Fold:
Amino acid sequence: PSTASTAEAAAPRPVTLVPAPRRAASDDAGVAKVGRSRESSSSLGIGPEVRAFAGGAFLWGAYARFAVARFAFGARALHGGATSPLGEVSATLIHATAALRFHEWRLGEHSAFAWGPRLGLGVVSVTGTPAAFDITGFVERGPYVDAAVSAELGVTVARWLRLDGALELGLAYGLVAQAGGTPVAEYGGPFVGVSVGVAFEL
Structure:
């Protein structure tokens, strides 16, 4: 072989680099945020709540809750009333709560189910309004303590917004309103609570 042909074979050939296709950053962020677990995120939730006691009393109102990782801390303001031949009874419950999620099951890319225990501590105020002038009314305030097991279902509808629903089964210690020695409304004992609301991802 000639010297010229050997030099041409040994000469380096140009190499062309083609960049690999990349996904948009917004797409990556969207997938990570929509599908993230509540066990590693924080949120602020609000919504209405209804609570029914085994004695027949009902309370309704609103809740606000801050959740971080597996813990949730909230406040509730509930109100209700009952009637009897001797008058009317109204009650207001203000209490703070702390909850722990034991586990979370993913039901798909946008929904999850979680459950765990919850404790609450607050004050219940009961007012009795007599139906006649010869009946004495009353105003009583006392402590309110409850413990419950809560089951929650969350559905993510946007990167920063989630719809929440919860069902609680619990036991409470509170006040019992009586009229003429007969219980009219018992704000204690076994109860069932239902709430729905929205949570803003932080």
